[in-house]
Design goal:
232 residues; two-stranded antiparallel sheet; 8% strand
Length: 232
Amino acid sequence: MKNNDNLANILRSQEPFDESLHSFLLRTMWKYDPTITPIGVIQKSGGFLSNPFCHKSIEHLFKLYPDHILLEKIDINTRIKGINNSLFYFPTHYSEIIKHIFFPNRKKAAPRQEYKIIRYCLNCINKSIKSFGYGYLRNYWDIDDKCLIHNSTLKAIPLTNMENTIINIKLIMKGIEPEDAYEVNIQQRKYENLAYPDKNLTEKYLFPIKFADCIMLNFSIWIINNIDKFKS
């Protein structure tokens, strides 16, 4: 129980900087114009797009933000994982992400993009309204079944179409429970034992310190010249 309390206190200390990217995009555009249709955030069937973006007509709203603020909003939505992880990294790629999300020069979402169920904890949202003056969606709600602060089951809204989802999200951000909301089913999570990694090494290991692409050749030559010094 003590560990749960410690985790809850840590998460509380992150308010309001733990807002999901979807939530940030929606709040910014609806604060400017409540009638805007968020085609880069919500898909036609009503779910959150897995790769949200700011569509062309409202990208000017995000030019007011410094780059480091936008990067922080992107980072909070990034999961730590080993898939497609590499030892080498193009140095400017990190800043280029800003263009893909906030200034992509797109008017509609890419076809067949995956979607996310929209989950929330109304207690958290009402607390944020009292503390900061606005309600927002936390970044970890889309990957968990419970609110880690209140230890309660998360709620979700049915995904029927974009119009209903917009209505429901606006209610939720005001701290109002939608009539058709339902409790998320609690899933038993299984975690792999990484002590014995399989052949998919790129999915098992992270490289927190990376080399620029331009030294790849020199690094390879160094490995070849010193290969006899490695144990395996």
